[in-house]
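My current task is to audit a protein record that another person submitted. I have pasted the whole thing underneath without changing anything:
***
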Amino acid sequence: MAKTVDETLFIDYQMSDAFDWSDSEMPVRDAIWDYLMEKNSHDTLKTEADMKPFMTMAEADVRDFVEKNLKTVASK
């Protein structure tokens, strides 16, 4: 019998838990969604397509994206 392990995805962590430079309690997933919505002029279908890769992306790749794109937004 196979074991089922529930593992919290990195994108489900709060920004403040995932990044020491953030004090946001928003999940990483929501922060990325908000960033992509702005980038895509609030086009939900385009944002949904852009968000899909993050669902299976490695933690290191998500961290890299957030550091490059959201850290500068958070510091403004």
Q: What stands out?
A: The chain has four helices and no strands.
